[in-house]
């Protein structure tokens, strides 16, 4: 009995310690977020999701979209700031954050992949499952996940479809089913300072990391503290998984030149030197070192696979082009032979006509003259012979 009691007590202490560890970790994370220097993106998101706002500030929202499209803002930083707002306790900020997230996803080409890689969908699912969540916010989050999951234009991001199907399979809460209408969509032209084309579909996302020198990264990852290095490793792992899902899909031909594929490939390539730097500088954290080594190998593997598929695709295109050229040459040769087949009859006909024209006035006359002379010569000769024959008898008489 004493051993059983001790075992139960040990289990309780273990569970309590794990719970306390999670609480402390959460509090430390909150304190770090509070003490972290705000970025221009997070400041703008704070202004767009103020608790004092009674309704969304559409002008602010769409100005943010315009700045993301012009690369003045980092899409990943905007998404991180929105995710932070969703995890908060303010009902108003959560609602306004969902509105801003929807606007950015609809109007920007650099947000959907960030939503997937930053695990914003997981935060939205937690918001839906939280019994203390406002019903209106729960409905709105569910509607967004449903719209993304049913969108064919986001089919290259399986996480949207998987999250939607997961919610659908386990059953939607009754409070969510009451919301029947989808949220109203807004176009950028109504509010943005720079006119943009209204989105008629969900855009294929882009990573927004286009600078060759890596200046588009929101941080200098070589000088990041341990916690933010771990965050970067998580983002890199998500990028590798997304690119791997795309390349291993059954779709033929592979979407190698799609914006999403290229953006994930670019992110993986830009992550390589950062991961290498983390490996070289990590000496006191075996877990981080092993994770970085694993990601280093995975990055090389997935990039090599992309290059192999690209090489194979180019080879097939070259073969198709050669076949097309060969077919074209055969058609041209056949076309060139056909006139040669029809010319001899025409040429012969023309030749016969010319021969008839040249020979019609002479050859027939000569031929007829010969015939007539020969025919006339017979009676003349006959007369001469007859006269000669007649004269001989007359003379003899």
Automatic annotation (TrEMBL):
Signal peptide: none annotated. Its main location: membrane. Residues 310-397 are annotated as: Disordered. Residues 310-340, 347-356 have a biased composition (Basic and acidic residues). One of its GO terms (molecular function) is phosphatidylinositol binding. The keyword Protein transport applies. It is a peripheral membrane protein. InterPro entries: ENTH_VHS, GAT_dom, GAT_sf, TOL_plant, VHS_dom. It is found in: Membrane. GO terms for biological process: protein transport to vacuole involved in ubiquitin-dependent protein catabolic process via the multivesicular body sorting pathway. Residues 48-175 form the VHS domain. SUPFAM superfamilies: ENTH/VHS domain (SSF48464), GAT-like domain (SSF89009). Gene3D superfamilies: 1.20.58.160, 1.25.40.90. Residues 365-377, 385-397 have a biased composition (Polar residues). Residues 224-311 form the GAT domain. GO terms for cellular component: cytoplasm; membrane. Keywords: Membrane, Protein transport, Transport. Pfam families: GAT, VHS. Belongs to the TOM1 family. This is Target of Myb protein.
